[in-house]
Amino acid sequence: MAALCEGFTLCGLGPSGGVGLGSGLLALEPGPDPDHVLLTDRGRTATLFKVSDQKPLGCWSVKHGQTITCPVVCNFETHEYIAVHDDKVLRIWKNKDINLDKVFKATLSADVYRVHSLRNGGPVVLFRGGGVRTLDVLLEAPQQEIENVISDEVIKWSEAFMEGQQPVLIFATEKDGDFFIYVQKPKMSSLHKYKLEQQELSKPLSFTAYVKNQVIILLCLYSNDALYKVLIPLQRNTEKEEQILSKSLLLKLSVSGSVLKGTSFAVLDKDHVAVLGSLAASGEESKECLTIWNTKFQTLQTSKELPLGTSGQLWCYEEKFFFTHGKVLTVIMYKCETSSLAAAVGKLKDSQTPDVSSFVNWNTLGDEELVVSIQSQQSVALKSESKMTLRSKKNTVAEVQPDTVSVRQLLLNLKDASTTVFEDELRQLVSKAQMPDFQASIGSVVTALINRCKANPKYYPRNFLLQIVETRDLSYSLCPDLMAVALERKDVYLLQVCLERFPDIPEEITYACLKVFLSLSEASLQRIDVNLESVICYIDIEINNKEVKTEVVENGFSAELKDDVWDTKIAKETHRTAVEFCPVGPQKAALLNAVLHSAYSETFLLPHLKNLPAQQAVLFLRYLYYLYVKCSEKINTVLPGTHSPTINQIMDWMCLLLDAHFTVMVMLPEAKELLSNLHKFVRAQVRFYSELNKIEGSLRELQRLNHQKDSQTYSIEVLELI
Question: Which of 239, 263, 421, 447 could form a disulfide with 312, with the two C-beta atoms 3.0–4.6 Å apart?
Fold first, then answer.
C-alpha cells in the first residue's frame, strides 16, 4: 500500500518567486543533512534549503557571464560543495565561504558532464567523453588527459552507487536512435559497454538504476507508456566488446482506459515506483499528475492531480517527492507499506494511511465494489469506463478511513450547498477537537472557503477565516491562497494575523503585504480594526493623533548631560526631531511591525524591495529610524509591549531597505535630511560604545577586586580609571 501525504511549497521559482531560480531548476541534490537539499538553477546560483523549515540556509553564485553547467553536489565526507561552471572550471567551497571567486578553483582539461557524490565513496566525475575519475585522483593533476570512451554519442543519463567498497558509475548514451549502456569502476579501471535492445516505435525517456546481489537493475521508462527492467551483471564473464541487453516488461502505465504519458519516475521500494506525467482518457483533456504504482500487482495505488503543470522532473529523497508545480517547488511526503493483494485494491483493514486510492478495474473481483478515497481538496478521482461507487454496506469506507474520508466527502457534498448550510457544517467540523491529520483537515476547510470566495466575489467569510487563523496552528503552505485573497480585498487585519502566525510566508507575499500597508491612507486605516498591542506601549495616542512626550534616558544621551562630547548635541537634536513625532499612525505602525516579525531571507526579499515605490521606501525608512531611536532610549534596547519588533529586526530591515534604495534616496531631496540624521545618530552611538569599550578592562578589574575583598571588612578605596 502507498499513499501521498499533504504537500507544501519549498520555494518560489521564476523571476517573481524571489529565489534566484529565474532561469529554471537544473537539478536537486541531497545536502549534508537528511533534511537539506541543494538546488541548482540553469544560470549562476546554487541554494541550500532546510526542507522542514522551508527556508534557505545558504546561497552561492558564480560571476555574471559564467554559467553553472552541472548540478552542484555535496561531498558528504568533507561537507564541502562542488560545482562546475563553464564546463571545465571546478569550484570547491564550505558553508562559511561567501564569495566563490575566493574559493578553490581548478581548470580541467575536458568538459564535465556530471559530478556524482557517494555517501561512503566520495565524489566521482563523469566527463562528456565518457571518462571517469574520482575527485581525489582528479585533484592530484587537474590538467591530466581524460580519455574519450564514446565517439559521436551523447550522454543522456548517469548514476553512481557503491558496490562493497568500490564506486560504480553507469551512464546511457544515444547515437542515431540506438542506446548504449556503459558500466565503469574507476578504481579498478574497469569498463563494459552494452547495447540496449531496440523497442519498435518507441524509445527510452528516463532511466534509473540500483544494485542488488551483484546485479545492476536498470529501469527504463519508454515512450510507449511502459516501464521495462534490464539486468546487468557486475561480474561480466564474456569478453565481447558489445553485448545486447534484453529487457522485460515491468509495468504498463494504463488503467481503465486511461493512459499515463510518463516523463520521469523514481523507485520507492522493491514493489513501488512513482511516475510523473500526463494522464489522458479517450475524449478527455489530459491532466498532469503524480502517481504511485505497485509493480507486483500492476496497480495504480494513488494519484495527485497537478493542475498548474510541471517541468517533467521528479526527485525523490528521504521519503519526499520534489517537483515543480506552476511557479513553485513543491514537496510531498509519501508512505509505502508491505505489498499485499489487500493493500493493492485498497482493502487492507489495519491500514493507517488515509489517502490511498485504487483505480484499477479488477474484473476478477466480480460484483464487489472498489473503495475509492477522495484524492485532494480540489481534484476529482480519475474517471473510468465503469463508474465506481462508494460502499454502502456495514464495512463502509469510514471503517478504513473514518475521519479523512468524512472530511473530504463533506467538502464535496457541500460544494453546491447554500452559504448558511455551508458555513454551519464547516464550523461544526472545525470545532472537532480530535481527528487524524487535524491541521491538514483545517487547511482543507480554509481552502474550501477560499474556493467559494473565488467563485462568488460577493462572498467573503472574514470573521470565520479570522477565527480559524487565530485559534488553529496553520501555515502558509496549508492554505496558500488565503493571503492572496486577503491581499486582493485589502483585509489588513487578516494579513496582520497571518504575518504574526505563519512561519513559512514567501518573501513575495511579505513584500506584497508591506506595499499594501504603506499605500493605505491614515484616514482609511482609522476605520479598520487593527491589533495595536505591538505599538500601544511606546506610541501614546491623543485625540489629535499626537504623541505624548515621555521622560526617557537614551543610551549615552541623557538630557542632563552638559558635555558636548561624542556629538551629544547632534544626538539630542536627532532625538528631538525623530522621537517626538512618529511618521505613521498607530494602525499603520502595528501593520508594519507585523511585517518586521515575518521570517525572510535577504537574498530573496531584496529583489522585491527594489520594486517598492520611492515615496513608500522613504516613509518606511522614517518609521524604522523612529523605532531605532526608540530602542536606543532603553537600557536593554527592548521596546515594551507584545509582538514589538526587536533591535535586530529593525537594524536588518534598515540595512535591507538602504541596500535596495540607496541610490534613489540619495537623489531624493526629502530623503536627504533623513539620511543625514540617521548617519549622525549612528555615528554618535558608535562613538559612545567605543568609549565604553575603552573602560571595559577597568570595569572587569574592579569586578575582580570586589570578589577578592572580605565582605565583613569596611573600607574606603579610591580607584583611578586611566
Answer: 263
Question: Are 529 and 494 in the same domain?
Answer: no
Q: What is the DSSP letter of 442?
A: H
Is the pLDDT at 236 greater than 80, yes or no? no
**Paired strand residues for 155:** 173
> What 3-state class would DSSP assign to 652?
helix
From CA 86, how far away is CA 112, in angstroms rounded? Answer: 9
pLDDT at 538 exceeding the cut of 90: no
The answer to whether residue 313 is domain-embedded is no
**Per-residue pLDDT averaged across 682-696, rounded?**
79
As a whole-number percent, the residues of the chain with pLDDT over 70 amount to: 75
* SS percent in the chain: helix, strand, coil, step 5: 30, 30, 40
- The string of pLDDT tens digits covering residues 250-305 is 999 988 778 889 999 999 998 899 999 998 777 778 889 999 999 988 888 899 99
Q: Which helix (H) or strand (E) holds 607?
A: helix 602-609
Give pLDDT, residue 504: 82
The closest alpha carbon to 684, from 520, 523, 532, 556, belongs to: 556
Any idea which of 23-32, 93-102, 534-543 has the lowest mean pLDDT?
A: 534-543
- Strand-by-strand arrangement of the 272-281 sheet: 254-255, 258-267, 272-281, 287-294, 299-305
CB of 527 closer than 8 Å to CB of 626: no
User: Could you tell me the three cell numbers for 291?
Assistant: 502517481
Q: What is the dihedral of CA 680, 681, 685, 687, to 10 degrees?
A: 10
Shared domain for 487 and 512, answered yes or no, is: no
Question: What residue numbers bound the domain in which 685 lies?
Answer: 506-540+579-704
Measure the CA–CA gap between 664 and 614, rounded to whole angstroms.
Answer: 7
Query: Are 461 and 587 in the same domain?
Result: no
In a domain, 556, yes or no: no
Would you call 118 helix, strand, or coil by DSSP? strand
Alpha carbon dihedral 245, 250, 255, 260, in 10-degree steps, equals -50
Q: How far is CA 200 from CA 173, 177, 197, 203, in A?
A: 18, 11, 10, 8
166, 575, 694, 701, 710 from 706: Cα distances, Å:
66, 37, 20, 9, 9
Query: pTM of the entire structure?
Result: 0.52
